[in-house]
User: Fold these one by one.
Assistant:
Number 1:
Amino acid sequence: MSVMHRYVVEGAVVGYGRVPVVHGVELEVPTGQVSVIIGANACGKSTLLKAMARLLCPSQGAVTLDGQRIDKLPTRALARTLGLLPQSPIAPEGIAVADLVGRGRFPHQGYLRGWSSEDEEAVAEALEMMNIVDLSDRSVDELSGGQRQRVWIAMALAQRTDILLLDEPTTYLDIAHQVEILDLLSELNRTRQTTIVMVLHDINIAARYADRIFAMCNGRLIAQGPPAEIITEELMREVFSLDSVVISDPQSASPVVLPKTRVKHQPTDCDARDCTVTSAVDAA
């Protein structure tokens, strides 16, 4: 069972060099829930997540964990509470899958504590959860993009943190494996109360799995709340410049965004021939 933490972004301005990308974001991550950050490309989603993971330091404002600025916390102590799967991680050349997943246990090591049975258990469990036990001895370099993504998620799971940040965790995965991974993360949240914050591009997937949505536009947080309350046609127009219809998912009751297009289906020659053949058969 995860420990509950107060995890807050306090008026953060974040960017690269002197160019701000995130402007004065204020939010508190709901503890023990799944939160998803959405927004158009280049709106600042990943930049905000990097600041929340201490990969970037705000030029104004702060990110705090239980009242302490995360940039003031010891690295190993922070990594025992906060885990991160970045957008494009790079594996050391030639490293085996099990060895890479095992690196998730680094924050739990120390001068007086070497590799333990608890570490073995955490790695074995993460490999099993990601269904990559059979890849344990393979080099990460040999894997497909989807397999590699599973390995990175396994490494984050092996870290066994109370808070887990994931930037596009379903990258390279087909729809069936996307659902499988997100179901697993949802189960992790329910059984361990792990606080999860994800960046996702797919609005409908985000709406189905999130307890809370944070919607960004041009580097600013413009809406937040449960998906059923904030995923509206007006928000889609403001965030994505998209005309849409929002309906209810018949399975989950979560909102589903259906984009409007100017393109309408036109009968093809094949369609016309099929109609002719069908009519002839019916007439006979």
Note: The two ends are 70 Å apart (CA to CA).
Number 2:
Amino acid sequence: MIKLILLVLTTLIIASPATMAEAMKIETIPMNSRPVEDVIPVLRSLVVEGGTVTGINNKLIIKTTPSNLKQIKEVLAQIDHAPRRLIISVKQDVGGNVSTRESELSGRYGTGGVKIESHDSGRGGTIIQGQDSDGNVIRYRQLETQSPGQDRNVFRVQALEGNPAFINTGQSVPIPNQTAYVTGSGVVVQDGVEYQDVSSGFYVLPRLQGDNVTLLIAPHLTRISPNQTGIFDIQNVETTASGRLGEWIHIGGISQEYNNERKRNLIGTKERGQEHRNILVKVEELK
């Protein structure tokens, strides 16, 4: 009896590796749309211990158990399809207004042979003036201006789901400058021109799940300041956002207000303004 038990155990030990080897099978699966390099990292996390996933000539070579192979094929059927074609739009909306009030006092006054006179700068506006019988004049001028500002632009680029896309457009703007050199004869000032690239666009990586989209996106906007020559307004964002296909997704923005006051001689200027900047993105499928 003991000999029989030992014989059975010995048989099981010898047969066990063979049985395990037979439990694994190798199958070659050709890819339809996706490159094998994109699929292998996903499938490796699904293979049972002892199994392998490799690829060659756009074919998958899978070594695993039959039940695990069935699971892998189910997942593969969901991901091995042609990437969906997308059109991605980024809208950058810049708006606001500037209110400026300028006041100035000028006039003429003379007495005892001494004459004091201040001339009007002649910039227009509402003028209130008074004059006496001796020819003395006092003049008050006030000028108010409203400067609404608006800048809307939309950038579009085609992309495949799961693949990055980039678009950038702009121009080189000449900026006058001066360079001073110290020589034996003194200081020499030389006028020159430097070109500054002013560009806008975005980088995006879209991923789809049904009608939902997740975006890794980095839009940027550079423009010449409408109020100051040689000054550039710059806006950059880098974020991950999600939403539905065909809908505008708000991914960022700022709102700011400012007050400036300047005085020069008898002229005072007060400036108030507000500005908003919003960035939105929309992903649509091309069919």
Note: The first strand starts at residue 25 and ends at 30.
Number 3:
Amino acid sequence: MLLALTFFALRHQEPEAPAALSEAPTTTVEAPTIEQAAAVEMYIPAINVRAQFDEGACRTKDNALDPASLDKACTYTAADRPYSLPGTDAPDIVVIAGHTAAGVPAVFNNLYDGTRNEHKVHEGDKLYVRTAASGEKWLMYSATDFHDPVKEGLADDPDVWGTGPMPGRLLTISCIQPANLLEASVKNAVVGWSYEGVIDGADASNGAGPAAPASA
């Protein structure tokens, strides 16, 4: 069953996935500047999560994030929100959302184990994002913090959102599907990630994956 993600309140007023991605970087590149742009691909090698992205910002419905596709992720931005598109100098949090579903495939099903009630990502695991502006380069993030709030409490959680702008922070947000498939999803799975640098995919196998990290 497709479940929407709880929408979160503004907390301050300041303004097919790639077939193969190398997990063994070989070549360092100078750190470039990658302008903010829409995400087009995401990869978390530790848990083999690969995602392409819906065009445009995440859809919302009845005050909930509701990605348009079950099999694609989306980035959330809005004119009255401070959240950023991904880039090397993103001034605030990048928000990436994706559906989970009970009993059927969904893009973020592998982020959280509802049977064990635990995140499948671990501290230090890497997330790679390629954008419309990055070409063959990928923005690299490292997992830093993990949350499983009740949906109604997510909007007011300073451990997730901070209390002001948070440059370099990225969030992945999905629903937690309970072990009992007949129960409703009442919690979100949230992982915080920290920007670390840029990966060059030009030298990887088949020219498709990240090479070595540049200095952040």
Note: DSSP finds two helices and 13 strands in the chain.
Number 4:
Amino acid sequence: MKKILLILFTIHCSLFTASAQCGIENTAFKSGEMLEYDLYFNWQFIWVKVGTAEMDTKMTTFEGKDAWKSYLITRGNNRLDKYFLMRDTLLSYCNPDLSPLYFRKGAREGDRYYIDEIWYSYPNDYCQLKKHRVDADGEQHWKTSTYKSCIYDMMSIFLRARNFDASKMKKHQTIPMPVSDARSLTNSWLEYRGKENFKMNGTKEKFRCLVFSFYERENNKSHELIRFYITDDQNHIPVRLDMFLSFGSAKAFLKSYTGVRSPMTSKIK
């Protein structure tokens, strides 16, 4: 569920260019934005709250230069801990134009703990990723990969993608979305499904939303991993996520949002 929750933030990715011109103008968020989510799992036909997630974004510095710092933390509650321990922290630094600089994921899943890291550089208009992984048994792996196209991780793609103009998309249009971790590059894409209204869980707030599905191809089969609903305004905030897991179904609902950049014009009164 954690992998899917993190992938959920890739909701507005555009086609990547042939060279590593990976920046984009930021019009969607400002320093100090905080998003909080409640996580639910379908347990014997009953939806049970199993944890929370929060994402914070602010302007800071990285290696002495201005940079966006963003982190995502997912935590299982005591009810989930009885069956499966979940503690994930993701960290990302990006240039002011949102091109990625560094990514780190520390994940505790059950009795396993592993670390993924990626350092980005852009020699001769290529996108180069220096990857480092520490397995649960402590074994370390290093790999460097170079691409002609821009490659992102599960955090930096979120910041870039929120600035994509989805109003120009047609229903059922698909967009390729190359996302890497320290092991491999995923063959994944996004499909636009149209617009729907959504009432936030436990509140009276109702939003006009754009609906997307995220697909991944593995072992010569395509799978819908997540269907998500994002505000149809300049902020492009995910408010609901339906996750299709190999062992069941899960959902995430936006609990609160603070420090947003633009008025929430998608809110229905």
Note: The chain has three helices and 15 strands.
